[in-house]
Amino acid sequence: MIRPIIRDVLFLGQKSDAAVPSDGAVGRDLRDTLAANRERCVGMAANMIGVRKRVIIVSMGPMDMVMYNPQIVRRDGPYEAEEGCLSLDGKRRAKRYQNIEVAWLDDGWKPRRQRFSGWIAQVIQHEVDHLEGVII
After folding, report:
1. Alpha-carbon distances, residue 38 vs 68, 82, 101 (angstroms)
2. Is this model's pTM higher than 0.85 or not?
3. Torsion angle of alpha carbons 106, 97, 119, 107, nearest 10°?
4. Among 3.10.20.30, 3.80.30.20, 3.90.45.10, 3.40.47.10, what is the CATH number of 9-131?
């Protein structure tokens, strides 16, 4: 289901709760909502659609990846980035890392761990910040 984008900074500033297996619908709603906003968005966190659960989606070119309970377990290569957000107006500066390693659960609730770099790493970091209530 395509959900409206939340712009309430008080809601967005709250930490998200751990996702559980019954939160699969949140991942599906993120897929639908990202697809509907693809021209102006490359990733989303569940709180952006009104759900305070630790679920994100990231566009990785031809596919979109949903991550449940993502954790950045390693990072290196800090740099300053300028980012926009579908939930906010304008652009803001953020500290990001060129390379990250992420642990998460996939759609089948299987543990995954992978390294990401560059643009995809930046998008993941932005969305994980959302889960922590960090607004750029």
Report:
1. 21, 19, 25
2. yes
3. 0
4. 3.90.45.10
Query: Annotated catalytic, 80?
Result: no
Report CA-CA distances (Å) from 127 to 54, 117, 122: 10, 15, 9
Which amino acid appears at position 133 of this protein?
G
**Which of 80, 101, 127, 132 is labelled catalytic?**
127
Residue 131 to residues 5, 61, 62, 77, Cα–Cα distance (Å): 15, 23, 25, 22
Q: Tens of pLDDT along 11-23?
A: 999 999 999 999 9
Q: Which residue has the tokens 């910040």?
A: 129
